Amino acid sequence: MLVKCLGWHLALGISAIDLRRRLAIQHRCRGARGRAYAVPHFLLLIDKSASWAKSPSGLFSWLAGPWRSRFADDVQRNFVQFGLLLLLGWNSTMPAHAQLYVGVLGGFSALSGDSRSVLSTGSTAFSSYDPKNGGAVEALVGVQLSDWFAVQGNYIWNSNELALSSAQFINGVQQGYTETRGSSQQSIMADLMVYFRKRNSRLRPYLAVGTGLVHFSSSQERINQLVGSPTLPPVSFSSNMVGLHVPVGIDVKLRSGWAFRYTFSETISANPIDDHLSPPGQHKFKNFQNLFGFIKRF
User: Fold this and answer.
1) Is residue 11 pLDDT above 80, yes or no?
2) 3-class secondary structure for the chain?
3) Most exposed: 21, 136, 169, 285, by fewest CB within 10 Å?
């Protein structure tokens, strides 16, 4: 009670002498009730200095003066140590959040088709290619940077059958062909992944975007029909391209660091087939993949 009264009076700026007088009045009042207590002796020293009596801060300076400089040095030293510990702690916890994972997926691949027709006086020409669905395999390695972000490297292989056809009518003369070709595509992609739920969630949908190198190759399997003397595509050809990779999918958490993954991805690149058609096609080449598999986190 006494300490609280002293603190409030000092905080409100009441002089030390007034404080001593009020305590003396309370002493007399309480003495009449039989609950007397002594006025603290250090208050008797307050009126010995006019500067102390005029300002409570002078009293504080007199009391705390010998320790003020040491206290300031300790505060500064502790603040610097705390900042260094915070910085070292942040740097040490960052690698702890990173988590390596690997995985293998398999499924189906579908390629986009293309066609073109050209009409002019005295001639008509058209061409097209029709891809069939094929198998696909993906091997991946990634690092989970946090609950929300990951970087991932992918090797993707797929194989698809192609049916090419072309025909021309020039001055009443017809020529054309249809042929079956095999094709394969190998891609090396680097993706940035964004997860929509925390790492310990059972279901974690994600969206990713990346880019990389795409190698496409195709070879002739058989000629199904040949009319006249058309210009045929090369027996085999290949092309290297830069592709845009956009996967979306979900991870289903299992046990012991394992997870089931489904992903649907689209890879867009220049079309390596169009240039070998007559007339040539005009659209981008798209590779759609539905893949299922497992990943292991370490």
Assistant:
1) no
2) CHHHHHHHHHHCCCCHHHHHHHHHHHHHHHHHCCCCCCCCHHHHHHHHCHHHHHCHHHHHHHHHHHHHHHHHHHHHHHHHHHHHHHHHHHHHHHHHHCEEEEEEEEEEEEECCEEEEEEECCEEEEEEEEECCEEEEEEEEEEECCCCEEEEEEEEEEEEEEEEEEEEEECCEEEEEEEEEEEEEEEEEEEEEEECCCCCCCEEEEEEEEEEEEEEEEEEEEEEEEECCCCCCCCEEEEEEEEEEEEEEEEEECCCCEEEEEEEEEEEECCCCHHHCCCCCCCCEEEEEEEEEEEEEC
3) 21
